[in-house]
Structures are given as C-alpha cells and as structure tokens.
Design a protein that fits this description.
Helix 4 packs across helix 5 and helix 7 packs across helix 8. The strands form two sheets. Strands 2-4-5 form a three-stranded antiparallel sheet. It has a two-stranded parallel sheet with strand order 1-3. With 290 residues, it is mainly alpha-helical. A hairpin with a 4-residue loop joins strand 4 and strand 5. The N terminus and C terminus are likely disordered. It is globular and about 55 Å long. It has nine helices and five strands. The chain starts with 5 loop residues before the first helix and ends in a 20-residue tail after the last helix.
Length: 290
C-alpha cells in the first residue's frame, strides 16, 4: 500500500480541500426532462469489452460509451485526457431516480477487465512514480539505498502496491461479495450533499443489483493490501498502529479521488474536455431526503 507519512497525509487532505473549493466555484446546472417508462436495453456492442453486461433481473441502464483519446482536441487536452480516463472508467451515473431502472451490472470477467485496465493506466504509473519519490526523499525502506538504483527499487514496489491494491478492491472482493467496484456519481443537486455522497462511498457501496451495501472491498482490500505489503517492504513498521495509519491515509486518498469523480463533469466542462455524460440529457435533481 502507499507509504504512511506526514507529507502524504497533508497531500491527501489538501486534495480534499482543493476539490471542495473547485466544486464550489463551478456552476452546476441541471435541466428537467420527462420521465420515460422503462424499456429493455440491448447488450453493449462488441467494441466495448468489459464495459457493462445486461442485468439478468430485467431492465437496466447502460453507461454511455467511454470517451476516446480522439475526442480530445489539442496537445494539452490529449495529455490531460490520457491521465483522466480512469476517472471516467470508474464512475457511473446513479440511475435510482429513474423509476424502474438499475445500472447494468458487471460480470466477473468485466471486473477483471476493469482491474487490468487500471493496472496499466498512465495514472497508475504516475502515482507509483510519485510515491516512490516521496519514499526516496524520506528514505523509507533504507535497505533499498539511494540514487538511481534505490529509486528503481522503490518504483518497483510502489507499482506492486498499486496493482495488488486494485486487485483486491476492484476484482477479488467485488467478486466475492457481488459488489460493484465503480463509484455511483450523483451528478446534480446541492454541492454539499454531493460532497458527502462521495465521502459516504468509503462506507456504502452498491451490489450487482444496484442496492446499497457495506463497502467491504474498500476496507478488506486495504487490510489485505497492507498485510501483503509488509512482505516486500522491509522498512514497514509492523503492528496494529502503523497499519491503521497506512489504511487511514489510503482511505482518505480514495475519498479524495471519489470527490474528483463526483465533480468531474463540472471540472471537465471548465477545462473544455469531453466526458461520458456530456451528451446525455440531464434528469431532474433528486428530492431531498431520498
């Protein structure tokens, strides 16, 4: 797992405040649209492997197709798009306010496909490189040494940290508990309520039938990943206290990313970037208390 440190704690908390401030300065507009009666949805096309599968219980709503790099204009847009596709891949629109609809579920192979895609995503390598740099600066795992060789070793174990964490949280435990590993974005409504919705995801997820459930994948995945990391991080402090600190930092970081996923449509609009729901007609904001 990502190494526990005071610098990384400040980074995670700073990310939360940045997203909250950015969301507060971006206008959120929602249009009312008539509620249509549920209709059967066809399976996804063959060129969208691992995206969604038809829910066997009957009617379900498919997420729009992923935004492709060709949809981005300009060198900076393509660079940003390369490192933000993961936000789009792991986020889906919550359909609970459309009566009769649930989100199409992911099968076992789709969850495995999601894990594989995230494991080779540019953001994963960027995160591993950043964490390795922090570890190098703080001389974590001192047996790795310094210099290029030391950074190379830290980069390798940081990448293993990222991959094994995603294996537990996006494939293994979601499969065992029939849990949907994606983040259900509200996408509209009061900003404070949306902010808390993202925080709540650390504790409340959805199962494969779009019903709320405890987020076993988040917590069991962090516990499993932290325990496994002790095997190849010789400098890790052992014991319940250090493990709890690392888990807390990782959960706070995940909450920060969920906040970014929640407000990504507004951020993308401000940066003039495409996102998967930009052509979807907005539905009415959910009533308070639902």
């Amino acid at each position: 797992m990502r190494r526990a440190s005071s610098a990384r704690t400040r980074l995670a908390l700073g990310g939360l405040f940045f997203v909250a401030a950015l969301a507060g300065n971006v206008a959120v507009r929602a249009q009312d649209s008539p509620q249509n009666p549920p209709v059967p949805v066809s399976p996804p096309p063959a060129n969208m492997p691992g995206q969604v599968v038809l829910n066997p219980s009957g009617l379900c709503e498919q997420p729009p197709p992923m935004v492709q790099l060709k949809d981005y204009n300009g060198p900076f847009h393509k660079l940003i798009g390369t490192f933000t596709q993961k936000l789009d891949r792991q986020s889906v629109r919550d359909p609970h306010y459309r009566p009769g609809f649930v989100l199409c579920s992911l099968g076992v192979k789709d969850k495995f496909f999601l894990f594989l895609r995230d494991s080779v995503d540019p953001e994963t390598f960027l995160s591993a490189g950043f964490n390795a740099g922090i570890s190098q600066a703080e001389n974590d795992d001192p047996s790795f040494g310094q210099g290029g060789a030391g950074y190379g070793k830290r980069l390798g174990v940081s990448y293993v940290d990222e991959v094994q964490s995603r294996f537990f949280k996006e494939f293994a435990y979601p499969t065992i508990f029939s849990e949907d590993p994606r983040y259900y974005r509200m996408g509209q409504g009061p900003k404070g309520r949306r902010f808390m919705h993202a925080v709540k995801h650390a504790f409340v997820a959805y199962n494969d039938h779009s019903r709320p459930m405890f987020n076993y994948s988040e917590w069991l995945g962090e516990i499993s990943g932290t325990s496994l990391a002790n095997l190849y991080h010789p400098g890790n402090k052992r014991g319940v206290g250090p493990a709890a600190e690392r888990i807390s930092i990782d959960v706070a970081t995940d909450i920060g990313f969920d906040e970014l996923r929640e407000f990504w449509p507004e951020v993308a609009h401000k940066l003039r970037l495409p996102f998967r729901y930009q052509n979807e007609q907005a539905t009415a904001a959910p009533p308070d208390g639902k």
